[in-house]
Amino acid sequence: MVSVESTSRTILASFQGYRLKWLKTDFPAGLAIAAVGLPSAIAYPAIAGLPPETGLYASIAPLLAYAVFGPSRQLIVGPDAATITVTAAVLAGITTLGDADRPAVAAMLALIVGGLYLGGRALGFAVFSTFLSRPILVGFFAGISLSIIIGQLKRVTGAPVTSDGLVAPFVDLVRKADQIHWPTLAMALAMFAILQISRLVRLPIPGPVIVVVLAIILSALLDMEGYGIATVGDIPPGIPALALPSTGGASAAQLLLGAFGIFFVSFAAGVITARSFGQRGGYPVDTAREMTGFAAANIAAGLFSAFPITASDSRTAINASVGGRSQLAAVVAAAALLMTILYLRPALSILPIPALGAILISAALSLIDISALREIWRISRIEFAFAMIALVAPITLGVLNGVLIAIGATFTYLLRKMMYPRDALLGRVPGREGFYKLHRRADARAVPGLAIVLIQGDLLFFNVTHVQGRFRAITEAAAPGTRWLVLDAGAISQIDSTAAAVLAEVRDDLASRGIAFGLAELNADVRDLLERSGFLGDIGPDMIFDDLEDALRAFEQADRREESREQEKEEGASRG
């Protein structure tokens, strides 16, 4: 039975210890969140071919759900560029789907994503957040950003751009230059310029808010629709009733596969946002509890006719900068957006589409972290290559395929690192204690007759062939008179039966060359497996050492015993 104390730690966790003096910052923070979130709430649904009101629904119910079940005081959930782009790819992949069914299917996907969060937490999926390597995610989000920018070409130019990929849409646009609707392009360029100026000047009012207000005023004064510029159109009054969405004719397999792709991107974006703001705020982030909050937010989105969402970095940043101290700021933001739906629908209906396209392009550009890509290039060319794979895949092969490739690239990189564990020969530095890598210290010297090999990684079935080859190479290159080879196993935390069998082969190969094989600094789990395999019994307790100092002393004693035996033989021969 779940205790009241345990439940209270899950429900309304962000309000625990609330202080009345926080009200003076939570209320303005909530209004600021609503102001910043409104433009993206209206703009993002267009990426997936959804009506603009769904973005408003996705910015109200999920905020309230996360406020109840989420652990973070400052994190704000809502529509996210990467998540809605993957949602768009899923909807596009369901070929039997009609335009009228898209909102219901998007809501069903949100509901399934919420269920995947709950199931993922129960199965301990939170640990996989550690596998989301920075290069892969930097590249993937840059690719998503480029995909968003390409998707806005038609909206900001009015030209019928239909090609897919990275280059083809721009070629298509050039070919159809005579079909560009110049008033639409002029509006988009003007709004984009305002966004960049507001970012450079750092105005107190966010650029997207300025653009939305200005575009609505211009549309009302100049009759933008009369010039052929598309506008948002009618927004239904009120909010939808709580209801289970329909599948819209989509199969269970299509929904589950699509929801998994959305879940992965939503999870990645949410964890990154939570961790980055947790680091800034100096508080720990519990990924498992965040999954509960994201689950509640997505389930709420599905039940209120919205689409899958995750943590919003822009809204969270505004909350932190204004000084929001709890999820009351999210509640205020949800209330403000609800008031917008109820009383400002006529103004929103005349908002020009090119202005929303400019907002999306500007937001997408901000997600491309050029400095991070440059840093990755400087640090590791291999990791930069993986970042480029993650960047290009969503654009050239589709966002869903890009998700799978990003996952595969992450594990490929991890597996490659594990397949080729590094090794080093150790020796002494005159006048100093301890052992040092011979290739690192020019003054380090190998102990005559003793080769000490350090393996920096686990020994498992997929890398032992490489390790066996390294042992063979080291043995062949060993100095004449080498009598012992000791493996420093201190960095080996795991070993399997295949590796135990290969170590037996290494021992036999060394024995055929007159070299004894020993082990030092065995971890408990490694020792247990090698003992069960019979390997430790074969090499004998005399060749198993607690540390390298013990191994060196045993080697020196063996040397002295051998010298004594040689001397006795010589004395016996002389007496004879």
From TrEMBL:
Stretches for region Disordered: 556-576
Topology term for the membrane: Multi-pass membrane protein
Stretches that traverse the bilayer: 29-48, 54-69, 81-98, 104-128, 135-153, 180-197, 209-230, 250-272, 293-311, 326-344, 351-372, 384-415
Origin species: Paracoccus benzoatiresistens
Keyword Lyase appears in the UniProt entry: no
Matches recorded under SUPFAM superfamilies: SpoIIaa-like
CDD domains, per database record: STAS_SulP_like_sulfate_transporter (cd07042)
UniProt subcellular location: Membrane
Keyword set includes Membrane: yes
Domain STAS per the UniProt entry, residue ranges: 440-555
InterPro entries in the cross-refs: SLC26A/SulP_dom, SLC26A/SulP_fam, STAS_dom, STAS_dom_sf
Keywords: Membrane, Transmembrane, Transmembrane helix
Record's protein name: SulP family inorganic anion transporter
Domain of life: Bacteria
